[in-house]
Write a structure and sequence with these properties.
heterotetramer; A mainly alpha; B mainly alpha; C mainly alpha; D mainly alpha; B: mainly alpha; Four Helix Bundle (Hemerythrin (Met), subunit A); 6 helices; globular; C: mainly alpha; 28 helices; 5 strands; 72% helix
């Protein structure tokens, strides 16, 4: 089993899905437990992977390779390195916890868990795939269940949200597909193998295309492909102005799906840029990173924080805070310093755990009060003290309080960015003030203040909900105190990635 | 015109004619029965084309299976004693117009295209060759087909189960 | 600098309070329910006392060493290594941080004990002690951290605890708002602090020595010379950035606004956090990085000016306040201003000296006011007090001693330390007579408002209602004993730092390894003595005015308050309207921006998205198919996948199937035509 | 004129058109299904004809058999649906069923 551990991790949930489909549709608890069992092995394997990952190597590990469609040189090629390992761990963890967060689903249970398990496979596949074609397939496999999960199990405006999500991502996928084909035909021999494409990265033209408006901007083939890929990924991140699907999707999606959406799906955008744009198109990356990652990321930080401040819906607020936090990832990536890029990937992981917690917490309160209006609560701290305590950890982690994980990654990102773009770093750091502002304001309105008589008898958070939250909380604290638990995994691969791009920086 | 040619035309006329009845008849019972003529005619055409196995399959499945199903469906949904058996049609004129243009273009295309020609035209038994293909090159689709059939089977059963129709 | 001595007990000084906080935080609610409040306070106080004892041990260990070797370090593990950044979790003690940990654990311990009595009737007892312990941990981390980032952890950590304790009684909106204000204003300061760290790190890194550790920065500080950024010296800019942090934490202009509001917290919190320890973090930080500040004369000038301006500014506001704790709050801001004045004239030792004496007398004042509030049943308005002298003798005497100390009465702690600062402000190379004279005016104001408070609260006839008068009582022992100890400290602490005139300061000598020799001040005892007399005289004037106004009633306060048509008084009384101005500009401005952003999202970006979605829907017939899938809700179909597919099939059929077919047909016809036209 | 590929293709085209006409004009679900069968048969004729005249191997016939198989599945499910609809709506007029859409 350890020989192809990644395949097991990727496809075990699908096997679980088949089992779920064969179960009678009214055996709800059986279906839930089978789903939990289907996501447990990937988690255990992820822990094994974590223990056995070679932290000194910058290369690919646990590689599996087999020809798949030889006519077009398509392979089944998977593996992990420092760029993806943290995401694989995060996916395995969140998928497992989210099964338990989905316990309360009672409409179409069978379909829900079947789709969820399919989604799990799609996500895992995206992070381990090293063949471009395989990557794209997993990418699409992940979108479809997501669409149905939002569109069927979502809130009142689910159709709108689902269609918006689908249109945005479809638009992104099309551009990505075009870029993938462009790279395929540019490579010689034609290949989808990412390692080969990276090895040939010097060959893709950088001289300006003789086509308006590219000739004006001095964009070559590489830049155009970079841009196509970037838009595809930016939608996922989501970067301004492609971010408006996120608040709607989050608000309508069921809790567990929000967690997956924010915890894993958003990371695919930045992961894709690191995995594909950086090594395959280094020259374009060097030329464009400042504008489209650095400046846009900073704009994301501030704009997202401002929008979050204006929200009245708790879930929407968290959604916008994701926009803001993902801005740090973009800014860190753009810096090409070890601190910046390590901080960015660490931030991806941290954001996954912290925002996961936040959405789970919003779900807890939504299940009890059946609304999420920030001004409609008040004084919850007196009614649900344990819940409020956990919330405080999550909120302060999100605020980047030292000692919790968010701080490390934000400091690394801003520190890294300082060397390259002082102004952006200062602006990004000012975002921290805004973030503190809206989160504290929210805490005050929801948890503090006089007890709202309407909710006087709300039950305290239960054991199952705590079970989903506590592991994340522990990780948040551990990574704040000992960030090398993750940083060690990343370092060598990311440093090597930096070395690919840095020579192209003028 | 040798006898084979005459025979071909006869089969062709039966096929097309009964198909026309299927399409134009006002009475669904007539349509259903003349569908038998079409299926049989097509089987005959397969024989002309040297496809003995396909012809046999056509007869077995279409005439023996599908047609019987259709007849059953017609019977179940219409009390035979009813004088008025609805087989309403709507929008005939635009449909005829469209079909007319379409068939004209199709025939144009058929005539103007220079189709590839085989080196030699064989009239050999095909069953063995088809069997080989199914078990070698087309094994996966073949298995998938069986799955599809199974799914259809289950689906049909589920659909006709009483409680799900509430 | 020699290799410092590695020890393994320093970590416990810092971590013991954390243990206490963790125990109480996780189990406190249960323990309190089952075993009562005694256990909670034991769990909380034992670690602080342990830390105190260890701090004393560290002190003795330091004393045993040669002065220039007085460093102890305790390295735990590597916290962050990325690229050239290398940050350890390590604690170190040198004479400066030794003073600080003694203040934090010593005075902190007393305040912990005091809280047993003060918080006794509160149900959230365990929560209070959790945060108090957590605060002690963060503060110790701040003063013993061996690098800037670790200090920053403590720096924000104390802010968090301050936030949590200001809003301790969270059911009241006013308290939580004050907490938010404190945290956010501090965040503004932290923002500057972290930028300062970045600037120092990268400037050193460009020369191959990127580091954030204090000792290394000191070693390579000379590399920062002649480095420029944006046309200014790096040292100047970095120290200014860090000073922004200090203004936030230590409540200096322009970020002082949070401290008066912070008085909403329980009084022991005000004493510990908002008087004795946390607010002095800025002074500590400047003293810790004195080698950088000394390289940046411009920054020093800014620090000194802001310090003296704050001292005066806050003192004028304190003149008019009626809330017993608010007067103390403004007085704290003012005293902090003195410390910054000291730091700003490069007299770091004097600043730290004042920090220490101030910790004693201000903690004592706050705890005394807490005792008064306790006795008055929660009343804080001095207009309703009076005559408490007889009812609360311990509280009165300790309060009075502290007032004497803060007013700079000769031979008390406040006298020596304040005078040291004023003397340095006059004589140091960075000082000037102007700074000195402003400082002296401030001292006069201080004497006035402190005696005003003393007279209003403890003398005269009681202005409280009948009910309150009957319930007046002295506080329990657990509260008065810490008061007495602190009052003794307020006097005694001054004697370790005698001025040159009276034989020289042991305190300065103790800090010498850190700050270097205090520059030879033209050992002119004459001027020093003269200036001392001047400031004492000004303070005495302040005392007399207060005496006449509030004790004898010979001088009506209205004589002053109606000066300039009362405008000046209103200005002071309303705190120069700074809160209102900030509210209008920053809070409203940010909210306006926020709403604009949200509006853009909803009305512009979504308009484009929805518009294109709609257009797509109209243009494409196939979208109809798509809609059928979604809108018709294929929910029940999912009961069985096959059935589900069947359901969809049916619904597609019942749509406008003909239209689809015609469209398909049309498309095929077109394709054929195209093929016929162009292929042959 | 000898019987050649063209003849078969024309037969296929005519069958296709008739099937399409059925599908387009009929409102009776079973008639529509019959039209679909016609279309499928026409495509089969093309497959087999090309297999015979153009490629010379039997792969076309294999496809034809697949199509027949699909047609069988489609008929089974389709007719089951028709019966189900009939049970509920007591009509199999597709437009009538449409108005009762959920």
């Amino acid at each position: 089993m350890t020989d192809n551990v990644l395949s097991w991790m990727t496809f075990f949930p699908v096997a679980g899905m088949v089992v779920v489909l064969l179960l009678p549709h009214d055996r709800h608890s059986l279906i839930r437990w089978v789903s939990a069992l289907a996501t447990l092995p990937p988690l255990l394997l992820a822990i094994w992977l974590y223990a056995n990952f070679d932290r000194t190597s910058s290369g690919l590990q646990f590689v599996e390779k087999a020809p798949w469609i030889p006519t077009y040189n398509i392979q089944y090629f998977i593996g992990v390195d420092g760029i993806s390992i943290s995401m694989v761990l995060l996916t395995a963890l969140l998928s497992f916890l989210c099964i338990f967060a989905s316990w309360g689903i009672d409409k179409g249970v069978k379909g829900y868990f079947a789709l969820f398990l399919l989604l799990d496979t799609g996500m895992m596949g995206v992070f381990v795939a090293l063949d471009f074609f395989l990557f794209y397939i997993f990418w699409e496999v992940m979108l479809l269940p997501m669409y149905f999960l939002i569109g069927i199990w979502g809130g009142p405006r689910r159709e709108y949200a689902a269609i918006k999500f689908f249109l945005y991502t479809l638009f992104g996928s099309v551009l990505m597909l075009l870029a993938i084909l462009a790279l395929y035909f540019a490579s010689e021999p034609h290949t989808f193998d990412m390692t080969q494409l990276i090895a040939q990265s010097g060959k893709y033209g950088t001289s300006a295309l003789a086509m308006w408006p590219f000739d004006r901007w001095g964009w070559g083939f590489q830049h155009v492909v970079w841009m196509a890929l970037f838009i595809g990924f930016a939608i996922k991140i989501p970067a301004f102005p492609f971010h408006t699907w996120l608040p709607d999707a989050h608000v309508e999606a069921p809790t567990a799906i929000s967690v997956i959406l924010a915890g894993v799906l958003l990371k695919m955008g930045t992961y894709g840029i690191l995995r594909i744009n950086y090594p395959m198109l280094p020259a374009a990356t060097a030329d464009l990173a400042y504008y489209f990652l650095g400046a846009l990321g900073t704009w994301n930080i501030i704009y997202g924080a401002l929008c979050a401040m204006a929200q009245k819906d708790l879930k929407k607020l968290v959604a916008y805070s994701s926009v803001s936090h993902m801005g740090y990832v973009m800014l860190g990536m753009a810096s090409f310093t070890p601190q910046g890029i390590n901080g960015a990937v660490l931030q991806m992981f941290n954001h996954g755990t912290i925002t996961g917690m936040l959405f789970l917490l919003v779900g807890v309160i939504y299940d009890r009060a059946h609304h999420r209006d920030i001004d409609g609560f008040g004084g919850l701290a007196a009614i649900m003290p344990v819940y409020t305590g956990v919330t405080a950890v999550a909120f302060f982690a999100s605020m980047g309080l030292p000692g919790l994980s968010g701080f490390i990654s934000e400091v690394l990102v801003l520190l890294g960015a300082w060397q390259k773009y002082v102004i952006l770093s200062i602006l990004g750091a000012s975002g921290v003030i805004l973030i503190a502002g809206y989160l504290l304001w929210t805490i005050q309105r929801v948890y503090l203040g006089p007890v709202n008589e309407k909710y006087k008898s709300l039950p305290e958070i239960n054991g199952r909900e705590l079970f989903t939250l506590v592991p994340l909380g522990i990780i948040v604290i551990i990574l704040g105190v000992y960030p090398h638990a993750i940083l060690d995994l990343l370092r060598s691969s990311l440093d090597q990635l930096n070395q690919i791009v840095i020579p192209h920086l003028s | 015109m040798d006898i084979a040619t005459a025979l071909f035309y006869l089969v062709a006329i039966i096929t097309v004619g009964s198909a026309a009845v299927v399409a134009f008849s006002r009475n669904i019972i007539y349509s259903a029965f003349s569908l038998m003529g079409t299926f049989a005619g097509v089987a005959g055409i397969y024989v002309f084309l040297g496809a003995d196995f396909v012809a046999a399959v056509q007869l077995l499945i279409y005439v023996g299976g599908i047609l019987v199903l259709i007849l059953f469906a017609v019977m179940l949904t219409h009390r035979i004693t009813d004088v008025e058996i609805t087989n309403r049609a709507a929008g005939r004129i635009p449909a005829l117009l469209a079909i007319g243009i379409f068939i004209f273009l199709l025939v144009q295309t058929i005539r103007e295209t220079s189709w590839a020609k085989a080196k030699e035209i064989l009239y050999a038994p095909t069953t063995a060759r088809i069997g080989d293909l199914f078990l070698e090159n087309y094994l996966l689709p073949f298995e998938l087909a069986s799955l599809v059939l199974l799914a259809a089977l289950i689906g049909a059963v589920v659909l006709s189960r009483k409680e799900l129709r509430e | 600098m020699d290799q410092p001595i590695q020890t393994d007990y320093l970590r416990w000084i810092v971590l013991l309070p954390l243990l206490g906080a963790a125990t109480n935080g996780l189990l406190g609610a249960q323990l309190q329910k089952r075993f009562g409040k005694g256990l909670i306070s034991t769990i909380a106080i034992a670690p602080v006392l342990g830390s105190f004892l260890l701090s004393v041990r560290a002190l003795f260990d330091l004393v045993a060493l040669q002065p220039e070797q007085r460093f102890l370090i305790d390295r735990l593990y590597t916290w962050i290594t990325t690229g050239s950044l290398n940050v350890d979790v390590a604690f170190w003690i040198d004479p400066l941080s030794a003073v600080m940990i003694l203040v934090v654990t010593g005075i902190g311990g007393l305040i912990h004990i005091y809280s047993i009595g003060y918080m006794h009737d509160d149900n959230s007892y365990w929560r209070f002690f959790t945060f108090l312990n957590l605060f002690t941990f963060a503060m110790l981390l701040l003063v013993t951290g061996d690098n800037l980032l670790l200090v920053f952890v403590g720096w924000e950590g104390v802010g968090l605890c301050s936030y949590a304790l200001i809003g301790f009684w969270y059911q009241d909106h006013v308290n939580t708002t004050a907490g938010n204000k404190a945290f956010i204003v501090n965040r503004v300061g932290d923002f500057g602090f972290i930028l300062g760290i970045f600037l120092i790190f990268w400037t050193l890194d460009h020369q191959g020595h990127g580091t954030v550790s204090f000792r290394e920065i000191q070693k390579f500080a000379s590399l920062l010379k002649n480095q420029e950024i944006w046309g200014g010296g790096v040292a100047t800019l970095a120290t200014l950035f860090l000073f922004v942090g200090a203004t936030g934490k230590s409540a200096q202009i322009p970020l002082y606004v949070w401290l008066p509001d912070a008085m909403q917290g329980p009084t022991p919190v005000s004493a510990l956090i908002h008087a004795a320890t946390m607010v002095t973090a800025g002074v500590y930080m400047i003293a810790r990085l004195h080698f950088l500040y000394s390289m940046a004369p411009l920054t020093l000038e800014v620090v000194a000016v802001i310090g003296v301006a704050t001292a005066l500014f806050a003192a004028t506001i304190a003149l008019t306040q009626n809330d017993i704790k608010r007067v103390l709050a403004y007085s704290t801001i003012s005293q902090l201003g003195y410390m910054f004045l000291g730091a700003g004239v490069a007299a770091y030792g004097a600043a730290i000296f004042h920090l220490m004496t101030h910790a004693f007398f201000k903690a004592c004042l706050f705890l005394g006011s807490g005792s008064v509030i306790h006795a008055m049943g929660g009343e804080q308005d001095m207009g309703k007090m009076g005559g408490l002298r007889s009812a609360m003798p311990y509280t009165f005497w300790t309060f009075a001693i502290s007032v004497l100390a803060i007013a700079g009465t000769p031979l008390t702690g406040g006298f020596f330390s304040k005078d040291e600062i004023l003397w340095q402000a006059f004589s140091s190379a960075h000082g000037s007579p102007l700074l000195w004279s402003l400082g002296v005016v401030g001292a006069g104001l201080t004497a006035f408002y402190m005696f005003r408070q003393l007279f209003l609260v403890f003398f005269g006839n009681s202005r409280a209602d009948h009910h309150t008068q009957e319930h007046l009582h002295e506080s329990p022992k657990v509260m008065t004993v810490p008061l007495v100890i602190l009052a003794i400290g307020s006097i005694a602490a001054g004697w370790i730092g005698l001025p040159e005139v009276f034989g020289g300061s042991q305190f300065a000598e103790w800090l010498e390894p850190v700050f270097g020799k205090p520059h030879e001040m033209a050992a002119s005892e004459g001027p020093e003595l003269l200036l001392m007399i001047c400031s004492v005289a000004v303070a005495a004037v302040g005392f007399f005015i207060a005496y006449l106004m509030y004790y004898r009633g010979a001088l009506a306060p209205e004589r002053f308050s109606s000066l300039a048509g009362g405008a000046l008084y209103r200005l002071f009384y309303n705190k120069y309207y700074v809160d209102e101005i900030y509210q209008a500009i920053f809070v409203r401005g940010t909210l306006l921006l926020a709403r604009t952003g949200a509006w853009i999202d909803q009305h512009i970006i979504d308009f484009i998205v929805d518009g294109s979605a709609k257009t797509t829907a109209y243009i494409s017939w196939f979208n109809g198919l798509f809609d059928n899938y979604v809108i018709d809700g294929i929910v029940n179909a999912l009961a069985n996948i096959t059935f589900w597919a069947g359901g969809k099939f049916r619904k597609v059929q019942t749509g406008n199937i003909n239209s689809y077919l015609y469209v398909i047909l049309g498309a095929v016809v077109l394709a054929i035509i195209v093929r016929l036209r162009y292929s042959s | 004129m000898a019987i050649g590929l063209t003849h078969y293709l024309v037969i296929g085209a005519i069958l296709f058109s008739l099937g399409l006409y059925s599908v387009l004009t009929r409102r009776n679900a079973i008639s529509i299904l019959m039209g679909v069968e016609l279309i499928l048969n026409s495509s089969n004729i093309n497959y087999v004809a090309f297999s015979h005249f153009s490629s010379g191997n039997v792969e076309g016939q294999v496809y034809a058999i697949f199509v027949i198989m699909l047609a069988a599945a489609e008929a089974a499910v389709g007719l089951a649906i028709v019966l189900a609809i009939f049970q509920i709506f007591h009509t199999i007029d597709v437009e009538a069923a449409e108005t009762l859409k959920e």
